[in-house]
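note to self: dont lose this again. the chain is below, predicted strucutre after it. 294 aa total, dont forget to put it in the shared folder this time
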Amino acid sequence: LIGGALPYMRRWGSSNLHYFVAISAGVFIGFVFLVITFFSTRERIEPPASQKTDTRQDIKDVFGSVPWRAMFILTLFIFITLAMWGSAMNYYFENYVDAGALYAFLDRLGLVAMETDGSAGYAVLNAFGLVVNSSDKAYEVCLSLTAIFTALFYFPGKADVETMFVLNFLKSLAYAPTVPLLWAMIADVADYSEYKNYRRATGFVFAGVVFALKAGLGIGGAILGFLLSGFGYVSGIGAEQSGTAIRGIVLSSSLIPAMIFGMGVAALCFYPITKKYNEQMQAELADRRSKAGY
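---
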């Protein structure tokens, strides 16, 4: 929204005004939607009527849940990888990819635009969706493919831009279904906690996994910084990088994040909620909730 509005904002003349107006509009719209979400969101499933608030017991139940621990580790490693790989790709294209080959490739696709005064520029939209009926194996398969395609970034030469874009497309295609599946699986963990403990702790289940998400983003960025420093990366615009630094950038964009992704996939081996188990669990929970006094 903001990126698409900027070219039109430039027609207003000020070099700073268009940024201020576009970002302010985006912030205001985002704030309105957050307020609407806050006041309109309701619990998907209410806790048992007989349940009394006991924070210590809720924490004990969540930490003792095997599927919750599996999802915590999985989320932590996934977002370490996303933060690390996403940041590393900036260095990959800046210091490794041949700029001429990249420009020629984008030009052939019609994505090179020479912007003149008052030009609207160009926008690229890339949207796709996949429907998955069973989360127990689909998530594992999609993450495994994502790890494989990430690792393959180690092999293209600096001028082999077409292969880089194909790999990135395949990686994104493999990873896309995992985004909604992750949150659906966390909801199943909340049901699992109620199923085993006769208490519902939805907030703690989701909050703990979100903590792993945020921690993963921070740890991933830190790991990349340590790796680049260890490989001798020299910061600064136009700085000359050694062969060792270039190799470190390539490894940080391919094999190393793929290995971390693999650790996340391994955590799924301890996730016990299969489709069959979930159907049995939901049926029993529905039966419990239908009875008076639960």
